Amino acid sequence: MKKALLSLMALIISFSVHAQNDARAKKVLDDLSAKTKTYSTINADFTITIENKKNKTTDTQSGKLALKGSKYKLEVNNQVIISDGKTSWTVLKDASEVQVNTVESKEKETGLNPSNIFTIYEKGFKYEFVKDEKQKNGETYQIVKLFPDEPKKKNFHTIVLTVSKEKMQIVNIKVLGKDGTDMTYAVKSFTVNNNFPDATFSFSEKNYPGYEVIDLR
Q: CA gyration radius for the chain?
């Protein structure tokens, strides 16, 4: 699951879109970006499904994400990552340990920044519109494929982005790995403009009694 969390965060910092002369895909992504930037905060519940085609195994875990500008709180399985925009605290519940990093050093180490999860498509990728997909509830999903500009530097070859046409929100992100492992991040609930207290995005040792705090800054 740690691999899944790291992969999710790596996507958050690196995914974006570079022109590929696909006007319809560009329209979808431009509209999505414009809508997302109107939100003061985002609160989302999601699932991560990891499908290993070689081993023929599938694993699904749930997660939660709260965003406010560059601040975030990400919860997946037994890990919690909290950031106030400058410092990040990674809480490893199984190990009763907290790792402290600057956001900048954490990004250099792993390419991670969960604050960008809903703007993953804005640069560094070519794009292609695939189709409109009508849902049973009458909603239309727009499917766009993303291809990294520098594929040799990535451990995946394609991202499939599904966007609700009516809500102009991301429904799911599917990452097709070069090693035969596919990861799907599906948004289950999505609310915006919540009034998060500042404490949401700051770490307090009193909330994790007995945990060892390791400062890696």
A: 17
CATH assignment of the domain containing 85: 2.50.20.10
pTM above 0.85, yes or no: no
Parent domain of 35: 2-215
User: Closest by alpha carbon to 177, among 1, 2, 7?
Assistant: 7
Q: Report the distance separating Cα 184 and Cα 49, nearest Å.
A: 5
Per-residue pLDDT of the chain (217 residues; tens, 9 = 90+): 555 555 555 554 444 434 445 889 999 999 998 898 899 999 999 998 999 988 899 999 999 999 998 899 999 888 999 999 889 999 999 999 999 998 875 454 444 466 666 776 777 788 999 999 999 999 999 999 989 888 887 888 898 999 999 999 999 989 898 888 998 989 999 999 999 998 999 999 999 999 999 999 8
Helix orientation angle between 2-14 and 103-110, rounded to the nearest 10 degrees: 100
Total number of domains in the chain: 1
